[in-house]
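Forum: Protein Structure Q&A
Topic: Joint prediction for protein chains with partners

I've read a bunch of threads here and the consensus seems to be that you should model interacting components together rather than docking separate models afterwards. I'd like to see that in practice. Below is the full input, 227 residues plus whatever partners are listed. Could one of the regulars post the assembled result?
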Amino acid sequence: DTGVSQNPRHKITKRGQNVTFRCDPISEHNRLYWYRQTLGQGPEFLTYFQNEAQLEKSRLLSDRFSAERPKGSFSTLEIQRTEQGDSAMYLCASSGLFSAGGNEQFFGPGTRLTVL
Amino acid sequence: SQKIEQNSEALNIQEGKTATLTCNYTNYSPAYLQWYRQDPGRGPVFLLLIRENEKEKRKERLKVTFDTTLKQSLFHITASQPADSATYLCANNQAGTALIFGKGTTLSVSS
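Posted by a regular:
Agreed with the consensus. Here's the joint model:
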């Protein structure tokens, strides 16, 4: 296993269109996280899954955003009716349940979204 | 609300010197503080984790300290090299779930 992968790496879309991103975590990791990062800022938490259950959602995750993790493996993040303010890097991370007792996370390379 | 602050947006040092980056937290007591490195266009990479009952943690040229009285963590890179140039992020997780990140400090090491 070579780590967390994300597809696509880049996405350019027009305002109002829907987009979907995919994340494949490290295979033995049962926790999966989505973050959003804009220029000059640290990553901001969006949502996280333990196995297939979505356990926490940030207030940043408006009703235009939805995330799934069917069967507790890969995850998808969909943004409906995209807005220019959605332009950002979307990062996925995974971790094992008892990794180091402090939950260090392994990040993918991110999907850069540009909304025109 | 929980807040993590990294006071310096940028730090420029010469090769061979020790880089010291600061992370302050307010309004809570984190169980763990973590430090990540991020290169342009890439995801963060985990470096070190320190628990609230630990004063110091080391890994090769890296050292992290945790002062619960000052509500501060310091991250040191000794004998810095140009390859250490990157953005360094401080993060906290309370309940082992989502990380709360600072804005990061961009370190530039010149030869």
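The mean pLDDT of chain A is 92.
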